[in-house]
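lol ok so funny story. i was supposed to be doing the assay writeup but got distracted and ended up predicting the structure for this chain instead. priorities right. anyway since i did it might as well share w the group, maybe its usefull for someone
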Amino acid sequence: MKKIISGFAVLVLLSLVPQLSKAQTYALDKTISVKGDGGYDYLSIDKVNRRLYVSHGTAVEVIDLNTEKPAGVISDLKGIHGIAIDNKANKGFISDGKANAIVAFDLKTLKVIATITLKDANGPDAVIYDPYSDLIFTFNGESNNSSVVNPNTLKQVGSIALGGAPEFAVADGKGNIFNNLEDKSSLNVIDSKTLKVIKNYPLAPCGGPTGLALDTKNQRLFTVCRENKGVSVVDATNGKVIATLPIGAGVDAVAYDPETKLIFCSCGDGTTTIIKQQSANQYSVIQTLKTQDRARTLTLDTQTHKIYLSVAEFEKGTRKALPNTFKILVYKIQK
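and the output, tada:
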């Protein structure tokens, strides 16, 4: 009898596999057209005010997530990269790479509050808010350091030598900031209170790491790597590379959904690789989502589970975006 029940249970589970797979298959939901031309980089979501912030050349495009329509623009910047959200201070912070500055704005009104010129910084790129230290950190790709800003006083309070060219970073909320070094193919651990690098882990076989995401519950980092076209799963407690899975070419960003246990890797070759986390140490690719060439950056709305990618059309053989072709691609779970 036990064997019959066991065999029946296996058959039931096997019959559910296609349904579970289908339930987590992503498909295009809509596109959001945005006026103007110019390049693009990071996207960021304000979960409290339900807004999507999208870098776009010299401006930040603001999208209302409830209506998925444009809701405003923060303009007259030099050349921006990332947007960090600090709901505690009701402020957003934009890394203006060409101005070597951080631009602070009000999350409710979108009005610019201050432009903070960074000392000893060149090319601020990624920017994050760390709730543990209550500080803003930029990662400066050309000066190989991080600038630290107090979001309340709007003053720079420090600088951290990183030992290589930084890419994206994530904070665990417990005083650790993890940061990829693209040219060193390694991972820094930064103490956000002492403002020092306390550890550095090699990421082999990962080469040229860019985007970084964190599963705080299982203490797993997901780092996407261009040179080997892979995403590596790293134990955040000791830096051990647990697994490496294949993804597309020209990857830039990665996001992790703690509810669906899905990892999204957006690649410049027009694909987003979607990976399922079966357990802390087991992973499998479940979908190669076709997006659009050069749709290499994304963000995830953990409330709706939608992913948002920015992209534009380009003159053939160039990196020049065609005017008024910029848009946001929206993908959701297919029912």
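The chain has one helix and 28 strands. Residues 299 and 308 are 5 Å apart (CA to CA).
back to the writeup now i swear
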